[in-house]
Amino acid sequence: MDKKFTVKIPKAFTISRIEVENYRVKTFYFTESLPSQPGQFAMVWLPGVDEKPMSINSAFPFSISFAAVGTFSKALSNLNVGDKVGVSGPFGTFFPYKGKKVLLVGGGYGVVPLRFFAEEARRKGIVCEAIIGAKNKKDIIFDKRFEKEGCKVHIATDDGSIGFKGTAVALAEKLLKEEKFDEIFSCGPEMMMFHLSKLGKKLKIPTYVSAERYMKCAIGICGACTLGGQMCCRDGTVMVSDIPLATEDFGKFQRDKSGKKVKY
Ligand SMILES: Cc1cc2nc3c(=O)[nH]c(=O)nc-3n(C[C@H](O)[C@H](O)[C@H](O)COP(=O)(O)OP(=O)(O)OC[C@H]3O[C@@H](n4cnc5c(N)ncnc54)[C@H](O)[C@@H]3O)c2cc1C
Ligand code: FES
């Protein structure tokens, strides 16, 4: 039988620089590079703690940005320059370079792969505008980083403490009435991507989302990350939104760490 297997072997990467993004988000730059495309992810391993997926923030050098929220991410956040972590990857699909003008819509750590896209897009002459959504001002990250990549930045906060008062999707709807975009790329909370996918469909604008589920193997064999039969780690995370929209799970059910289906 002719079968191909992806081999997943972590390599030791050394932290070379740390930047504090806000009260709980840090960016780690490493001495090593990880040739990869925007939208792909790496598995980051802390021996004795856990191994978790992280979006790739940059490839040369490799960097990740993460929020210290639980056991793994808090342990990661406590590391210092010179410390090592295990890194494997890159895994998954990536955002395509097709349109000439792309609307990027990110929430939470979803801004990480979109910033990487903006960096590559700039080199290819693709114009990007970015919407960053958050609960409030203190959760906004990467606005300056998008500007550095030549993007016009629009901010939406639930409480209106900065920018548009409302959701990133409501701001996208307003912007799409005023300007023409060839594509919409999105990464962030699933409900945001679900409503944005429906908006893109209504307006007939090709929309790509980064569909995530709890991941274990990252290479399509354990089934932990299934989304209506699609393995998010292998068939995604980046998918044209018609694919997740056609499943009964997207925007409705997620899976917990044990794999049990639970309502959003
Ligand atoms: C493909 C993919 C890419 C990812 N990329 C990134 C990335 O670039 N940066 C990043 O920070 N994380 C990223 N994650 C999430 C990451 O893998 C971990 O789930 C996250 O670091 C939390 O793990 P933990 O063990 O620290 O906390 P857990 O024990 O898993 O969670 C602790 C608590 O925090 C909550 N929680 C989890 N994540 C968040 C969050 N972001 N904000 C608020 N509460 C949260 C959980 O619901 C839980 O209640 C990605 C996940 C996937 C599937
Ligand atoms: S994490 Fe195992 S199949 Fe995706």
The CATH topology of the largest domain is: Rossmann fold
How many beta-strand segments? 17
**Fraction of helical residues:** 10-25%
Order of helices and strands: EEEEEHEEHEHEEHEHEEEEHEE
Number of domains: 2
Question: Are any ligands bound, and if so which?
Answer: flavin-adenine dinucleotide, FE2/S2 (inorganic) cluster
- Compute the gyration radius: what is it? 18 Å
Treating each run of at least 4 consecutive H or I residues as one helix, how many helices?
6
Word description of this protein:
The chain is an alpha/beta fold and 264 residues long. It has 2 domains: 11-91, Translation factors (Elongation Factor Tu (Ef-tu), domain 3); 101-263, Rossmann fold (3-Layer(aba) Sandwich). The protein has 6 helices and 17 strands. The protein has helices at residues 71-77, 111-124, 143-148, 168-178, 190-203, 242-245, and strands at 11-20, 25-30, 41-46, 50-55, 63-67, 84-91, 101-107, 127-134, 152-157, 164-165, 183-187, 207-210, 226-227, 230-231, 238-240, 253-255, 261-263. The strands form 4 sheets. The chain has a 7-stranded mixed β-sheet, sandwiched between helices. A hairpin with a 3-residue loop joins strand 3 and strand 4 (50-55). The longest helix has 14 residues, at 111-124. It binds flavin-adenine dinucleotide (FAD) and FE2/S2 (inorganic) cluster. The site of FE2/S2 (inorganic) cluster has 12 residues, from loops.
